[in-house]
Write a structure and sequence with these properties.
18 strands; alpha/beta; 25% strand; 34% helix; 3 domains; binds L-homoserine; Dihydrodipicolinate Reductase, domain 2; Rossmann fold; elongated; 438 residues
């Protein structure tokens, strides 16, 4: 067997401890598959004294994690510190400057600085791998880079945030409200350090920006991802969706389109959707993640599994280490940075589809007529409409009107809502959620 692959681990939280446990537990199997031993030689974290339930005595402790990659006895740095900037980014830069490889689970850093870091890695002929950054234990990046490599990917979408999926599916099962269930997701450890990243769709947007780049061969463009989270979804939406045969899921959706000038544009959006009960994503419950990729030869692929947690995330980190041990350096985004396309963002108004629109309105004569007149004037055709008792808890003066539109342009819905802006009949801004069919 060849020389061991020598690892330095930065960050010893849940995932860091999971990586140590996995490498120790499956050491023989990993060495046989990788063709060499994967050996942790050094570790670093903010707090040396903390009990992490793993024995660190066999590893060198390094106080300044940023210089881990500069050690002579280290081949690969595993960054599990988190945060788009700060020590994680400094560590990544110094690691590539030292000509070493980096494996990370840090989606925020890859979404914001992935291109710069990939260019550095390519320049250093080092590996930069981040399977664990997207959908935890699911090999979605490998699936796209390797299994589906021969296909033009037409669309990639999925459930990319376990916290939101847990909240939505628990609201669905129990009829409980959003705020109540959020606390539970945090207690179970799914949520980010800042849970607004989860519930406002930012975490899913980080992951989607990375997936899009690999799927479409375009430069990572996190700023172009439109992100809306799940804060405004209420139990009544879930009940209305169920009555129509749909489940509400926070979906990250990306596809390319060609505009009227023949230019390729990239659509990227994270938004709650109504997913038809016969679509596989409708049945992805709890903190599970799922990624769908549609290729021009392979058709629809579905990857599903745990999107967070120490075991699944460690599994993805160590799979990247095994690749590196085997000599797979490859381009981090599948295509070298210099050859990635720069696709401008697509105009969302060009998109067509069905949508669910929920209004919270005053309960008095003429309100429904006002809403349907705006729909008529904007050219939105209504497929079904339900008016239900009271809407949000504690709002006895309003009623909920939920409608599903026929297939049509999103721009028409925006226009209808613009016509209704400032209307005294509306108790709050309407909520629009696109539908995904079977
Ligand atoms: N906070 C993330 C989620 C975990 O809820 O999916 C890993 O990215």
């Amino acid at each position: 067997m060849s020389e061991p692959l020598r690892i330095a681990l930065a960050g010893l939280g849940t995932v860091g401890a999971g990586v140590i446990r996995l490498i120790e537990t499956n050491a023989d199997l990993i060495a046989r598959r990788a063709g060499r031993e994967i050996r942790i030689v050094a570790v670093s974290a903010r707090n040396r004294g903390k009990d992490r339930g793993v024995d660190l005595s066999g590893y060198a402790w390094v106080d300044d994690m940023v210089i881990l990659g500069e050690r002579e006895d280290v081949d690969v740095v595993v960054e599990l510190v988190g945060g788009s900037d700060g020590p994680a980014l400094s560590l990544a830069r110094t690691t590539f400057d030292a000509g070493k490889s980096l494996v990370t689970a840090n989606k925020a850093m890859v979404a914001h600085h992935g291109l710069e870091l990939a260019a550095k890695a390519e320049g250093a002929k080092a590996a930069f791998k981040f399977e664990a950054a997207v959908a935890g234990g699911i090999p979605a990046i490998k699936g796209l880079k390797e299994g589906a490599a021969a296909n033009a990917i037409e669309r990639v979408y999925g459930i990319l945030n376990g916290t939101c999926n847990y909240i939505l599916s628990t609201m669905e099962d129990t009829g409980r409200d959003f705020a109540d269930v959020l606390g539970e997701a945090q207690a179970k450890g799914y949520a980010e350090a800042d849970p607004t990243f989860d519930i406002d769709g930012i975490d899913a947007a980080h992951k989607l920006a990375i997936l899009s780049s690999i799927a479409f061969g375009t430069a990572v463009d996190f700023k172009a991802v439109g992100a809306t989270g799940v804060r405004r979804v209420i139990s009544a939406d879930i009940a209305q969706a169920a009555a129509l045969g749909y489940y509400i899921r926070l979906i990250g959706m990306a596809e390319t389109e060609v505009d009227e000038k023949g230019e390729r544009r990239l659509f990227q959006r994270v938004h709650p959707h109504l997913v038809h009960r016969d679509h596989p994503l409708a049945h992805v419950d709890g903190a599970t993640n799922a990624v769908v990729a549609e290729g021009n030869f392979v058709g629809r692929l579905l990857f599903q599994g745990a999107g967070a947690g120490d075991g699944p995330t460690a599994s993805a980190v160590v799979a990247d280490l095994i690749d590196i041990a085997r000599g797979d350096i490859g381009a981090p985004f599948s295509i070298p940075v210099a050859d990635l396309d720069t696709a401008p963002p697509a105009e969302t108004g060009h998109r067509t589809g069905k949508a669910y629109i929920r209004f919270e309105v005053a309960d008095r004569p003429g309100v429904l007529a006002e809403i349907t007149a705006a729909m008529r004037d904007a050219g939105v055709s209504i497929e079904s409409l339900i008016q239900k008792g009271h809407g949000e808890p504690g709002r006895d003066d309003t009623v909920l009107v939920a409608m599903v539109t026929h297939e049509g342009p999103e721009s028409a819905i925006s226009e209808a809502l613009r016509l209704l802006e400032g209307s005294e009949s509306l108790a709050e801004r309407p909520l629009v959620m696109p539908l995904i069919g079977e």
